[in-house]
Amino acid sequence: MRIDVLTIFPDYLRPLELALVGRAAARDLVDIHTHDLRQWTHDVHRTVDDAPYGGGPGMVMRPEPWDEALRAVSGGDPTRRPRVVVPTPAGVPFTQRYAAELAEQHWLVFCCGRYEGIDGRVVEAWADDEISIGDYVLAGGEAATLVIVEAVTRLLPGVVGNVESITDDSFAHGLLEGAVYTRPPIWREREVPAILRSGDHAAIARWRRDEALLRTRRRRPELLDRIELSAADRAVLAN
Ligand code: SAM
Q: Could you tell me the fold of the domain covering 170-238?
């Protein structure tokens, strides 16, 4: 997959060179390019913003640099158009399912807004997706892009060594994952649940499912309405 990021703060995207995403890029599993939007400005101040029509506080990102940038980055070949993503708090909520959908694409372009956001005509002309990473307002689209790119990259084939660690994740089955444990078996008088050390794989799987169901009911009960529950699941939740 190719990923292009357009931003006025290219250094903000440096974490993409680290850890899982950085390793995936080093192994050519993802090809990431960050571009400074200001290279598509033509005045001495390299201006990207202007006052909002209709008045009000703050500034709005002007359409011309965005349009030039998107034309340059997407290369003008209409048969190989990227999917253009604009992070915005007013967008569609980002979910694991949305990450999986984006992971199927061959090319993503992220447009990181700042100030009061990007002129609406650019979004109308170019955006395939307007995505929110949560019900709060950040200062810019860079942190949101980091979140989306990491969630998408870890779903690309070969990026995570053990595929089960993805299929067992929270949301993979519509549930939150329960607590996980490693050595030592007793730490500060707290013992790892005995079942996890029993070697009985079926019993462990059932116990994990039960923990996931109970945690989901406690923290995100609305998720339970969206999945099919077995009779055994219902019995756990009945208590
Ligand atoms: N005036 C905008 C509004 O209320 O919808 C908020 C603009 S915000 C200060 C600046 C930029 O941060 C946005 O254009 C967007 O790129 C990004 N941003 C802020 N919160 C976000 C969120 N929850 N999800 C995705 N992007 C976000």
A: Trp Operon Repressor; Chain A (1.10.1270)
